[in-house]
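Researcher: Here's a chain I'd like modeled. Treat it as a single chain, no partners, no ligands.
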Amino acid sequence: MSERLGMPLSRFILEEQKRHPGARGEFSIIMEQIAIASQVIASHVRKAGLVDILGFTGKINIQGEKVQKLDELANRIFLEAVKSSGRFCAMASEEMNEAVLMANGGQYVIAFDPLDGSSNIDVNVSIGTIFSIHKKVSQGEMATVEDLLQPGYKQVAAGYIIYGSSTMFVYSTGHGVYGFTFDPSVGTYLLSHDPIKIPEKGKIYSVNEANAKRWVEEGLRKYVEWLKEKDEVTKRPYTSRYVGCMVADVHRTLLKGGIFMYPADEKNRNGKLRLLYEANPMGFLVEQAGGMASTGRQRILEIQPESLHQRVPVILGSPYDVEKAVEFIEKYSD
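Model: Modeled as a single isolated chain. Structure tokens:
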């Protein structure tokens, strides 16, 4: 058992900073602000049924999806926390049509999904926040959209917060993945998973099989059928688990192993999950934990983003399971 378990998030960040002589303390401020924002969001999530923050606002976001009241609230809370850190010159959110660009001297840019799985809010199922951080690359004083349109392998940090039976903060700065659980008795996040390592092979697959007949890749239909077959050598059949919230499904996959998939279908030919707000940060975390993240055709983190709200197919999880899925796609799909 790690001797560091129970260490407060703020102290952990400082300890990590000492291990990297070139660090200037920027991430201490950034992570603290994100942690504070997540605590505020978590408090609203916990009392969502008691105050008027449940339900549909009547608006449709850039994704063509109904905006929940808690979506708007979480977006505002997260945006204000990020701005107040003074470290970001560009911010993009799944809930905003355009990016916020500034000339404030900040050297980082952030893309975030303030409340992933918001369709689960009204039925009290786990939801979460996802974020992805890059360094500013443009030379001018004012940030540009190109600062946000960087491939995932250039991320300097990524993470998520899951609001479930407990609130957990999981993040990576490229040196492993660490999980912190919020302790309400002391009012802070404490190190609970040091570090997170995804199993080489799992026994759970997570995908919305209701869309199977509409999947673009015939190979994935073959793969899922293969997962259901009985075979002692490969420890099949697998168990199916699907929450419908990426944070919840990927969190389980990170801890237990297996595979999470959201493939392209006839309705969403390019996939449904967003590259900047979901696929890149989650792909980064899974790879840092020893797993793989692919579209089925290429590594997610190598995709050059073309737009803020670009969508991609997603297949991520344990190396064995992702490699097997890609093998089926290559064998059976056009």
